[in-house]
Alcohol dehydrogenase (Novosphingobium fuchskuhlense), 308 residues
Amino acid sequence: MEIERIEVAAPGPGDLLIRQHAASVNFHDIYVRSGSYRTLDLPGIPGLEAVGTVETVGADVTDFKPGDRIAYIARNYGGYSRLRVVSATLAVPVPAGIDDAIAAAWFLKGLTAQALVDEVEPVRPGMAVLVQAAGGGVGQLVARMAQLRGAKVIGTAGSPEKAAIARVAGCDEVIHYRDEDVASRVLAFTNGAGVAAAYDAVGGDTFEGSLASLGVKGHLVHYGQASGPIPPFDLSRLGAKSAKVSRPFLWPYISTRETLLAAAESLFVSIAAGELPLSLGGRFDLAEASKAHVALEARAAGPFVLDC
């Protein structure tokens, strides 16, 4: 990845010209850059989300004015930039008191975690859940949000550092998935019952352990593939426990202006209340985006942001 100077057009009707302050670095960006996701024509500008200040509004924009601080997620990418045009329908106000870098680093992750525990497999008081990579970005939030909703949370981690993060995030038990048999530990912790839900963003390395950890009618929520995609498997294997597997993406859960604003407001309320673990793993200048990718791929404790 190299930084280039380009001409930025004036905002058209319904658009905002944004002076960006911070952009988040996500595994999705790595999947795009590596070709694992073929959703951005290369060469192109990666980056799904950022926080910045409105410089100019296009015609027909009534919800924002110059000087407003906003966050956005754009499926057409382009977040790794200092100045850009986005549709006003994608922008949400960032409340005063929430730091730019914190908002940028945790906006997409926070909305994803909320969707996972409230809609994909709603967490109920007393249920047992498994969170793979609970020391990672989204994993921390899934663990904490599940705990706040009354679940017993079992987390996994690949290093002592990540295990410590997982415990701070709210895991009742942490399993070192590189050295221990995850399913055996889960079954021991749940007295043989297994978990009602397994939230797994690791993919290839952890899928079998997540599947074996499910209880009767359990749900394996496979929402990422940090270690690579899962191989094909026989669906009839789910029959023994009447289990299910899903592969959710965030977009359908924030597909309307109303659902996006409601989800963002809920997340920012939790952030302002201090309910969520929101540390930063590192900050890089925009020109050092490649270094941020290297750190994330090396499983360094994140999240990481680019200062624009």
The chain has two domains: 15-107+253-307, 125-246.
